Amino acid sequence: MRVRDQRNRRRGVLAAGMLAVALALTSACTGSGGKGDGNAPGWQGGADQPAAKASVTISEPAADAKNVPAATAITFAAQEAEKTSVELTDSAGKKVKGTLAKDGKSWLPAKALSYGESYTATVTATGDDGLPVTATSAFTVMKQPSKQVRITSFLGDDQTVGVAMPLIVKFGRAIPEKYRPEVQRRMTVTSSPAQEGIWHWVSPTEVRYRPKEFWKAGSKVSYRVQAGGLPLGDGWYGRADLTVDIKIGPKLVMTVDNSTKRMVVTRDGETIKTIPVSLGKKSTPSSSGTMVVMEKLRKTVFDTFDELGPEDGYRTKIDYAQRLTWGGEFIHAAPWSEGQQGTTNVSHGCVNVSMANGAWLFNNTKVGDPIVVKGTERKLQLGNGWTDWNVSWEQYVKGSALPYEPAEDETADDETADDVTTEDGTTEDESADPDVSASATP
Question: What are the residue boundaries of the L,D-TPase catalytic domain, all occurrences included (predicted)?
Answer without folding.
Answer: 252-374
